[in-house]
């Protein structure tokens, strides 16, 4: 029995050790690649080819901090209007696309899931929300990408940043089930107390129920922003006149222009320039992103 218990203890100790080893290896690879990217972005093209993994070589140009200035010159996108869009305008398009569009596609499912979770038993017609959600999620409503683009053109939100953003105010999305589980976990006693004090449905939602989920909302919102920041396919297809940073950097990586525009260090500098804002955002919200998500409550 003693030997068996010792064997079980060793098995229990092996699992956390294996996890820590894997995490250490993954983090080491990440930091090595990140450090390599920073060093590469500060080299000349010749220095990079002579020594891809070493420090910038003084005999081949030394440290080139001006590579980051060249990013503002060479990261550009030619739009259908016949003009070039540069990094500052791309930044505006990206911020609007990420902040506003990300908020729009999160608010709709949050409200719809709240109505379904709290009123389905009281109002039978609300149960149709679940049917619509299932159809919207699992039934392909458009036969192809071409049909989706044609629909966008006919409705007028194709290649229009603002209409494209607000037309996606929908009650369904990936966060519907997440928020539905959250609302189900909140007791309706809080709302009943507010209703007895004369609060209406919107007051109950905005001042009682929603504040208890604000931590989850922030985490989901930041997650949406990070995903949209790196998404280049949707803006490339539907917003050709409003290129985002992801679109600009993607096209810059594929370009074969002569001179510094084709330099590997400058292209790596462009990638780091785009990645830094998301790294800063993660550092600001790292405690909420990596900590325990707790729901608030009311004191009796």
Please provide a written account of the structure.
There is one protein chain. By secondary structure, the protein is mainly alpha-helical. It has two domains: 2-73; 78-254, MetI-like (MetI-like fold). Helix content is 67%, strand content 2%. It is built from 15 helices and two strands. Strands 1-2 form a two-stranded antiparallel ribbon. α3 (67-74) packs across α14 and α9 crosses α10 (201-209). The radius of gyration is 25 Å and the shape is globular. The mean pLDDT is 83.
Indicate the CATH class of the largest domain.
Mainly Alpha
The CATH topology of the largest domain: MetI-like fold
Low-confidence runs of at least 5 consecutive residues: none
Rg on CA atoms, Å: 25 Å
Percent helix range? 55-70%
Strand content: under 5%
Number of domains: 2
List keywords for this structure.
about 300 residues, mainly alpha, MetI-like fold, 2 domains, two-stranded antiparallel ribbon
């Amino acid at each position: 029995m003693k030997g068996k218990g010792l064997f079980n203890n060793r098995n229990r100790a092996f699992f956390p050790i294996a996890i820590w080893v894997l995490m250490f290896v993954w983090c080491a690879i990440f930091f090595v690649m990140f450090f390599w990217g920073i060093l590469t972005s500060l080299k000349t093209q010749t220095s990079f080819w002579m020594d891809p993994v070493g420090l910038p070589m003084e005999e081949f140009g030394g440290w080139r901090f001006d590579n980051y200035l060249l990013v503002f010159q060479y990261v550009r996108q030619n739009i259908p209007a016949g003009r070039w869009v540069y990094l500052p305008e791309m930044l505006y398009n990206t911020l609007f696309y990420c902040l506003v569009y990300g908020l729009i596609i999160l608010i709709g499912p949050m409200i719809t899931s709240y109505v379904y979770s709290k009123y389905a038993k009281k109002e039978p017609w609300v149960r149709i929300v679940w049917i619509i959600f299932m159809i919207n999620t699992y039934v392909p409503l458009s036969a192809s990408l071409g049909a989706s683009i044609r629909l966008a053109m006919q409705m007028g939100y194709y290649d229009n940043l603002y209409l494209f953003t607000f037309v996606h105010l929908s009650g369904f999305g990936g966060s519907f089930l997440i928020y539905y589980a959250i609302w189900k976990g909140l007791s309706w006693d809080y709302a009943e107390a507010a209703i007895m004090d004369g609060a209406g449905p919107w007051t109950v939602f905005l001042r009682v129920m929603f504040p208890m989920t604000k931590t989850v909302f922030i985490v989901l919102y930041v997650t949406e922003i990070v995903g949209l920041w790196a998404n280049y396919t949707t803006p490339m297809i539907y917003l050709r006149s409003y290129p985002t940073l992801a679109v600009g950097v993607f096209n810059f990586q594929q370009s074969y222009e002569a001179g510094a525009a084709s330099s590997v260090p400058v292209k790596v500098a462009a990638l780091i320039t785009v990645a830094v804002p998301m790294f800063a955002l993660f550092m600001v919200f790292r405690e909420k992103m990596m900590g325990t998500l707790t729901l608030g409550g009311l004191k009796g």
